[in-house]
Amino acid sequence: MKMCIAEKPSVAREIANILGATNRRDGYLEGNGYCVTWTFGHLCTLQEPGEYTEKWQKWNMGTLPMIPSKFRIRLIEDEGIKKQFAIIEELVSKAEMVINCGDAGQEGELIQRWVLTKAKCSVPVKRLWISSLTEEAIREGFEKLMDGKEFDSLYAAGSARAIGDWLLGMNATRAYTLKYGTGKNVLSIGRVQTPTLALVVERQKAIENFKPETYWEIRTNYRDGIFSCQRGRFNKKEEAEAILEKITPQELEILSVERKKAMEHPPKLFDLTSLQVECNRKFAFTAENTLKIIQSLYEKKLTTYPRVDTSFLPNDQYAKVPKILKALKPYEALTKPVLEGGKIRKSPKVFNDKKITDHHAIIPTGVFSYDISPDEKRVYDLVARRFIAVFYPDCEMANTTVMAKIGDEDFKATGKQIINPAWRVVFGNNTDKQNEENVLPVYEKGEHGPHTPELQEKQTQPPKYYTEADLLRAMETAGKQVEDEELRDLMKENGIGRPSTRANIIETLFKRQYIRKDKKRISATSTGIELIDTIQNDLLKSAELTGQWEKKLRMIEDGTYQVTDFMEELKVMVNEIVHFVRYASTKTITVEETGTEKEKKDKPEKKEPEKLKCPKCGQGEVVKGKTAWGCTLYRKSCDFLIPLEIQGKKLTQKQVETLVQKGRTGKISGFKTAEGNSFNAIIVLDENKHPNVEKI
Description:
alpha+beta; 7-stranded mixed sheet; 24 helices
C-alpha cells in the first residue's frame, strides 16, 4: 500500500478523488492501492526547555543560555492532534512507500518531515511537488514524483530556522524578562519580531523628534502652464521676495521645448508580499487576511501556490497561457485582444527561469468559479488583471520638458501625456482624464509674454507612519527605502522573515500590544517603545543583520551553506546576548554610553594581556573583543566571557587580568543600582566561571 500524507483534509480529499481512494475511513481515505491521510498544519513542535532538563523548568538567569546538545520534537498538546497522529503512525507502519503531499515549500516540508520522523517512518519517501491543485497539476505531479531526499536541504533550512527561533526566542525572552520585567509581563523577543518592532519604533521617534522648517518656492503661470524657479527652495523669505519683485515686471521667454516618448511596462505579476501590499492599499486588508484569502483561492483551485517570493514565470509556462486566458470567462473583453492579436507577447520581465526557485508568481490556474466570497472575488480580480496585463503592449507616453527664462532666472515646466494606454485599459483607467492631466499647452521656442508669479510658503514634512503595506515592504528590504521594483527584487534574499511568515509576525506584534493601528497608521505602544529602548544589543534589533541571517537560511536551502556553521553562529550570538543582559545595569543605558567606539575615543588604547590563559577550558587565551573579553576557543568549544561593562562599571584591563588569574578581583567602586546609586563590590567567578558581583 502507498500512503499519501497531505497538509490539510481538503487537499487530501482532492488527491484521493484523483487516485481513486474513495473509501472513507477514520482519519484517512483508501482505495486503488492507496491510502490518503492528512495533518492539520503543525502536529509537532520543538520541546519546551523544561523537557530537556529539570534545571530549565524555572526561569533563572543562572541557567542561561539554554542550548540543548540535541533538539527533540514532541506532539502538540491537543486531543484531536494526538488522535490523528496515532492514525498516521499506524498507516506508516503498514506502508510500503510514503508520498509526502505537503505544501510545496519550506514550512510544508518541515511539517511533514517532523510528523514522519515522530512516526518512525523507515520506508522510501517520495515527494509530490506542485504549484496548483487543479486535477491536471495533481495528475502531472504524480507522474513525476521526486525522491524525498532531493528536498533534504529544504528541510535542513526549515529545521535551522525553527531551532534558531527557539534558541534566540527562549533565551532572549527569559534574559530580558528576568532582568527588566515587572514580574507579571513577559518581554517577548524574537529573531524577526524584534527588528520589525524596532523599525516601527525608530520611524515613530523620527516623527516625534521632527522639527519642521519653513521654506519658500517661486512659481509662475504662463499661458496655463506652471513653471518653477530652478533655484529650488529659499530658506529666507526676503531673498525669495527680492527675486519675485525682480521678475514680476519682466516677460517669460521659452528657451526650449523637448518632447520625449517613453514606454511604461505593465506591472509585475504578484508575489505574496506585493499582493498583500496591494490589498492593504486598495481594500485595507491586513497581511494575514490577504494570506488567508489567497490560500483559500489556491485550495479552491482558482489560483496557484501563494507563499512565493518571485514575480516571474518559468519559460515552460508560456505554452499554457492561451488555455488560461480562454478560461477567464468574466474577462473575455480583455483577453480577446491578446488571443486574437497574433503571437502572444513573451517578455523577459515575465518569463525568466533564473528567477524561479520553488514556485512561480501567483497567477490564475484556468479554473474559474462564481462560488467565491466578495473578498475572494476582489483578490482574484487583482491576480487575474495582473496576469492579463503582462501580455498587453507597453503603454506609450510622452514626457514634455519646457525650459524658460525670466530676466536672468531659469524656470522649468514638465508635463506627461498618455498617447496609447495599452495595458492600462485592463485596469479600467480613465484614459481621457489622464490625457487631460498635467498636459502643457503647445509652446514654441522663442515665444515670450507676461506671466503671473507667486511666492509659496511651505514646510518640510516628517516621515510618514508605517501602514501595513509600508511595513511589509520594509521587512522585504530589511528596512531600506526602495521604490524601484527591480532593485527591490534583488534585495529580497536579505529581507526579514519569509513571505509566508511576515503577516503572522505583524499580527503577533499587535496581539502582544507592542504596536497599534489607527485606521491605516501603525504606531508603537509605550510597551513596544520601552522594550526597544531596553534592548541595547544591536544583534536583536538590526533589520539588516536579521536579513543576513535570512540569506544564510536561503543558502542552506540551496545547499551552499552548512547548517553546522549557521548553528555555531547562533550559539555564539545567544551567548553574547545573555552575557550582555546579565551584566548590564538594570537602569537603561544608551548605546552611545556603552559602545566600545566611544571608549576608544575617550581613552587611550591599552595593550591587551599576553597569553592570559582561559580559566574555564584551560586551553584558549582570554582576549578583548568588541563587546566582551572572551576565550579564543569561544566559537568552537568554550563559552567563557567577561563583558566589558558589568552593572554600569567598565572594567579595566588590570581588573580583568586579576579576575581571570585569581578567580576574584579586589574591591571595585562605581557599580550602579537600578536607581542609579553607586556601590562597591568584588567580582567572583562562580563554579561555571560566570562573573558574579558581590556587594561589600
